[in-house]
Amino acid sequence: MDDIIPATVFLVGAGPGDPDLLTIKAARLIGEADVIVHDGLVSDAILALASPDAELISVAKQRSRHSMPQDAINVLLIDLAREGRKIVRLKGGDPFIFGRGGEEVDACRTAGVPVEVVPGISAAIGSAAQAQLPLTHRAASSAVTFVAGQCKGLSDQDWSGLAGIGRTLAIYMGVATATDIADKLIADGVSPALPVAVLENGTRPQMRTLRTLLADLGDMVVREKIASPALIVVGEVAAHALAHDMLDACRALANTQEGRATGGKRVE
Question: Where is the Tetrapyrrole methylase domain (predicted)?
Answer without folding.
Answer: 8-217
